[in-house]
UniProtKB/TrEMBL annotation:
<protein>
    <submittedName>
        <fullName>DUF2066 domain-containing protein</fullName>
    </submittedName>
</protein>
<dbReference type="InterPro" id="IPR018642">
    <property type="entry name" value="DUF2066"/>
</dbReference>
<feature type="signal peptide">
    <location>
        <begin position="1"/>
        <end position="18"/>
    </location>
</feature>
<keyword id="KW-0732">Signal</keyword>
<dbReference type="Pfam" id="PF09839">
    <property type="entry name" value="DUF2066"/>
</dbReference>
Amino acid sequence: MRKLALLALAMVHLPAFALSHVDLYRTEVAVDQNESNAESAARIAGMKEVIVRASGDQNAVNNEAIQKALSRSSNYLAQFSQSKNGDQTTMRMVFNDRQIRDLFTQAQVPFWPANRPDVLVWLVEENRYDRTIAWEHSDSQVLAQVRQQAKTRGLPITAPVGDFDDITGIEVSDLWGGFVDPLRQASKRYQADAVLVVKAQGEQLRWTLYDQKPVMLGQTRQAPLVGSASGDEAPTEMVNKLSDYFAKKASVVVASESSESLKVHFSDIESGVSFFVLENKLKALSSVASLDILTIQADTVTFNVHLLTSAQEFEQQVNSMGLVLQLEDSVMPSAQSQTYASQDQVKSELAGGALPLETNVEVEAISMNGGDVPVVAPQRVLNFQWQGQGVVPEFDEAETSSTDQE
């Protein structure tokens, strides 16, 4: 009995790990029956929500590879169903977690792991001359909006329950005045990773984030983060800023090669112009996520092509360009010595007419996204002969007008 008591006492003093596991890949989207392709639009909207939630980056959906993948959203869907509530139809979707992570690797988009910090939210609302704390079950529109956006962004939040201990443990004036000691005492009972104090006056929000466990409030010199937002969307804006902050701290970019990749040789690349035309044509294909230059030897360029589709579809799209002649496949041997060079070096050499190269210069693992990707085991290589020597590069209109202005 004494041993059990000692064990229980020891457990009380063990640190509590409050990180919450977020379901990143499940979403529910309203279906607008007035749209011509309502289900497809809902599927794309759902995939966008999942991408933002899993990456922690609202701009991730603008990535070129992500844009291509969105047009094939059904390929990433694991489960879906529809339900109806009155006149409103919604689509419930679960996206394939492995495919989404592979897409992030291909697009070099950051991934925010599913185990995320839980934020304890103390919300004080001022209504005329009355100030009240929004408890877990309070009928607070601000808290409801915060919860909804936090769910969308995948940021776990907890509101205080508002029981006897909460009501007697802290005063509205303590929160409004920013007094840390009573905040620490009232927050310690919650297994949170950070504490957020929000003061709402009409459509104006002012917030203070203590990015530390409640027990550490006031015990360190770590300065809190402060911010403000106003308007109807102030709660949404606040949650977005907080989500961006936590995502930036924890997100990682997986730089390893995707399993969905293919080695491709292009011969008869007789000039830098031909290289740039070929590169742009390949990057524009809907089957291509990104390109890595593996080697440049004489008039032959070898790419590692990260795919969004099957290798067969990529082959068809390359042939449909009408600028290549497909040759027999080959096998790439294991990499021997590797000479690394910067992307700027290669671009500079090509722009200066350094193709064909007079000597064999291997440019290994130069990523179009700026990172290095190692060449690994032997594998199938597609071979094409370039037939587009007379084709000139296509320039973006905005880019051209900007250059003219300069």
